[in-house]
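Problem 3 from the worked examples.
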Amino acid sequence: MRRMSALVPLLAAILVGCADSGGAVGSPTSPPIIPVAEAATLPTSTPVPPTATSVLPTFTPVPTSTPVPPTATPAGPTVVPTPSPRPAGTAPRVGLQAGHLNASELPDELARFRTSTGARYGGVSEADLNYDIAQRVQALLEAEGVIVDLLPATIPPSYDADAFIAIHADGSAASGPRGWKLATPWRASRAAQQLLDAVAASYGPATGLPQDVGGVTVNMRGYYAFNDRRHTHAIARTTPAIIVEMGFMTSAADRAVLFDQPGRVASGIAQGVLAYLAQRDPSDGAALLPPDFPNLRVGEAGAILRSAPSDDARQITRIAAGQRLFALDRRDGWYQVFSRDFPSAPGWIREDLLETTSEAFPFPTTTNP
């Protein structure tokens, strides 16, 4: 996933709540990861087509839960039934998405991402790297009795699993940025946060790579596969999920691990997932529920959007009266919100400057972007 200097021009993919059965979608032979020294000599003007994306069979959706309508937003807080525990003895199911894989085959609702190819170094595309690592993680998890769905860019409608991990790699116009980072969706459930904590605890030690502290972007937390409110092809709201940026393909130090020691990368992800599955309580359906908040509107006095929940925090912008907002979090008398008038970043508004409304937040659509 290529780092951008500007976060998001619109709420195209940032609002969540603004990357087969019993195995992979087929088992095509993954192209070998080109060693760093060899890849560096490949001409960048003639990209090598990602073999994996051209040979992967047509995706067959795995069994899922009842789909959540992608565009219907309720007037008030959504009441999501507490999931029933899975039958005793049921093997855990994990979805591994190889970011950008077969992006050209995304459905019409995600057509804007069909040309999103991610990062590249020499002749190695991000899709190839993500797919190679995802296959390695799959093998490690299946060896421990986990059912794994290896998924391309297109996610089955309301994909239901015990964990979902979107595997990506970073890139930058400069060679300096490096390191890994993880993110949950906005409105993360307790289970999603536990999944993130478990993978974060294993990935750094396994790879030896530094963490890209402060590098998590709005696009990561608002990843399209997390956005069941807007998209049909997204995870179920109760599926614990994270997105992993494994490191920078444009960093020589990171490439030495990502390209030359992919087993360490896969092990770092797999160890974290297995730790999460071992520590979770399968009967705790409440842990899978993301928080929900009322639909909000700015009151008659208008409101100031701030960078933190404090009157002393930096002012981002002023929001006019009547503007509808999408709440992401609530803390100490403040709401963290998105506004379509200022979609490049979320901010905080004092609760006393807001009012609840029966009108749903106007999520972007092809006719109302």
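Problem 4, a separate protein:
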Amino acid sequence: MARTKKTNDVLERIVLPPDPGLVKSLGAHHSLPTAVADLVDNSVDAKATRVLIVFEIENQSATGLTIVDNGRGMNEKQADNAMRLGRQRKYEDDAQGHFGIGLKAAAFSHADTLTVYTRPGSGSFHGRRLRKKDVQRDYSCEILHPEAVERDAKPWFEQLSTRSGTVVQLADARFPNFTGTKLDSWLNEMRADLRMHLGLIYHRLITRDRLRIEIVTFDHDLGESGVPEDVPSIDPFDFAASAVTGYPKTLIAKVENTEIKLSCHIVPPKASGPEYRLYGKDGAQHQGFFIYRNDRLLQVGGWNHVTTADKSLALARVAIDDFASIQPFVQMTPEKNAIRFRAELQSALMAAKTRSVSFDSYLARSAEVLVESKKRKHARQPVVEPGRGIHEEVRRAIHAEAPIRKNVDPVEIRWRPMASGRFMELDRNSRTVNLNRRYRDLFTSGTNGISDAPLLKSLVYLLTEDHFAGERWGPRDKDLIDLWNTVLDTAIQTELAYREGRSQ
């Protein structure tokens, strides 16, 4: 039946505002690291060069998170627009935000209250607060008194030695209700996850000194902060040498009238650092496309159905730097944690080539290099599971580098009171290496925690772990432990003498 052309079938036009209940699911796909990254994106867009991330502790529990930057801040109108849900302003070409929901989605993914303090240059202070329950009801926003904003924001700005910037506070946070050592372990894990994620996705900005990110803990009960930790650059392509002469190679894909450059790398088979073991996992899990926009890494591996992930392609990593060239052919989630390729882009990438190398031949060469390396590889001996007291990042590195002994309990490292003349004691029954507490400040500078002194504890673990692998200790083991204690205690006394001499 032929469809008739309708020319005047509209009776009227009405505006249907979205149901405030949609806010319940806002940011549902965010992890804490991806949520914080979305907040840091706002700082980068504001031309900030320093960002401070603060875990706030109160009543011995983690209660909130604060992000402070030294960017250009916002005026009153900009502050209002920032709090408006779905506000899509005109973004600059080098902006990281594009959806108008990043701030709200990131905040409400882990907290029920979002407070923003901001000041543009020598202008006035402005403050806004969104409570999730209010937004769900009627999208209402609280405007804060300028004097209160100045009082609360100034101490944060002073830490960054800036007159302009923005403070984003996530309060009523839905963090685990841990206390004591469990809280310490959770904080260590979260800080490690943030350093890994932020160091990876902002590695270019960090390396070029365009951005410095620090992470710190502030204890409101004590009124003091811990020692800030810098987020290091983690470049997924920073290897001393290529596995194959002539690589990386630049292949060209063509879709419609657009050329897309692919920088095709073959990772050295012996690579084992954090640049390869992204997120502490086997590097094979991060083969594929690494997609950048304005020097911010958006996608960390994955083939987007261009080819199939396979262990044989563990060494294949492809950088796409020009996001503008692929933007018409992709769809990105608001959380920036997934990019979907359209079929025509997938086909174009499969057909990418230079005069002598095709995309298929690049993948085949990558697989060949892996096979050749395995013929020369010697299996490492298993080690005892590292337990409490050893920093989370160190434990991840150990897991990635060596097989773990089965049917053997982990070994822990702790500080405990001990007589002078003994650096450590090994307790086989409790599977613990006890370190002499009188020397703790020498290695921690007074900043103590369950996973403090990571370098010392890593060395102690490597020195002692195999003594916890067998069924019993013989005279040789006990004599060796006495030897260690004599040498290490002498070394410590010598170190103390050096320090006293320098201070005189």
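Solution to problem 4. Residues 475-503 form the longest helix (29 residues). The CA atoms of residues 316 and 366 lie 6 Å apart.
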